[in-house]
Amino acid sequence: MEKGLTVVLEDIKKKVDKIYAGKAKDKYDRRIEELLSEYAALEIPEKHIDIYNSLINRGKELQKESNIKNTKKLDFFLRYCGAAQYDFRDNMAPLNLIMKSFLLTCVLFFVLAPQYFSFILPLIFVIPIFMGLRGIKKRMMNGLMMGVSVVPMGLLVSIIWLRNAYLTLGNFDVFVSGLAQQYHFSLEFTRNLAVACIMMSAVMFGSSIVLLVSAIKHRKMFI
């Protein structure tokens, strides 16, 4: 495999060692060494050669002293190198898992939250969820962070549902009867609806955990 990118990374590391010091130098050295190790064992498919060449060109441009002193540009390039490995390996499964767990968590959050928090709470999260969805699709780190922001609320709502379900185990029929009178539904419909909501809360708890774990594990996929 052509070693163009590894050579560029080594040149960047030399410049980093001259410009930075202390914790910043250690952080960048550690990240670059990690990338060098990963790319040394990576074969670049022909169909992704344009992405590979783009990384090389960006790296060469970054080597200008004015650019490499810009921590935002340096951080972006290193994140780009890390994220590109998923493309080179044709490994989009983590992105699909993050997207599906995010959408499932959001849908169930909109369905279950109004029972205990009215419709105001879901409305507050409309914009963050929309921005998170767009950002995750584009594999942007800000979008991932925005998307993960729904996890605490998803866990909170699901735990409240599951806790209340547990507390009503001994008097479930009384609980259902109270709901039926409150919302003017039939007992059978209310019972089925309550069971469905409890099941959905369990699913939302699981999807929230999956989203959080997947986002942490595959955060390098995002730029």
Report on the structure:
The protein is mainly α and 223 residues long. Helix content is 81%, strand content 0%. It has helices at residues 4-19, 22-40, 49-62, 65-68, 71-88, 93-112, 114-117, 120-124, 126-137, 141-148, 150-167, 172-183, 187-217. Helix 2 (22-40) runs parallel beside helix 5. The longest helix has 31 residues, at 187-217. The two termini are 25 Å apart.
Roughly how many Å apart are the termini?
A: 25 Å
Main sheet specs: none
Number of helices: 13
Secondary-structure element series? HHHHHHHHHHHHH
Rg (CA only)? 24 Å
The shape is elongated
Helix content: over 70%
* Strand content bin: under 5%
Chain-averaged pLDDT: 90
Poorly predicted parts: none
Secondary-structure map:
Layout: H1 4-19, H2 22-40, H3 49-62, H4 65-68, H5 71-88, H6 93-112, H7 114-117, H8 120-124, H9 126-137, H10 141-148, H11 150-167, H12 172-183, H13 187-217
Helix pairs in contact: 1-2, 1-3, 2-5, 3-5, 6-9, 6-11, 6-13, 9-10, 11-13, 12-13
Explain briefly what this protein structure is.
By secondary structure, this protein is mainly alpha-helical. Helices cover 81% and strands 0% of the residues.
Summary tags:
about 220 residues; mainly alpha; 13 helices
